[in-house]
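re: ur question from earlier - yeah i can do the single chain one, its not a big deal. heres the input i used so u can compare w yours
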Amino acid sequence: MNQRIDELLEKYWEAETSLAEEQELKNLLQTASGYEDEKALFLGTSTFSSEEPNLKMPTKTIPIKSGNWMNWAASVAILAGSIWGWTVYEQKQAEKQAYMEVMQAFALIQTNLSKGQEEMHVMNDLKYLNTTNQLFGNAIIK
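and the output i got, formated as tokens:
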């Protein structure tokens, strides 16, 4: 019997036993003398499986408030982001308005410059005159 127990223990520690051989080993250990460590291992697990678990359900539930600060942090982050976004938008709108005013001023300058150039065509005939006699012609006073 001790020889069979030794064979089964050797197979068990090498993970080569079947469920039937493990049951046979437990039965042999119950009747055999010696093998105290093995008995404690194999027979101790069987006593654990026969015991009824003693679980107590909690009587009072405690609400968990650890995520509350995260809600506040998220709210503050969204608010700060919104304010920053709004100020950037307002700044871009002000830049756009200033750009449009500058472009209108340039358009007004261009219009007035064009009018001035048209009025200067009358003076184009005078640029070819070299002397005052040519300018006033025969109107010299005698």
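The CA atoms of residues 61 and 135 lie 112 Å apart. not sure if urs matches, ping me
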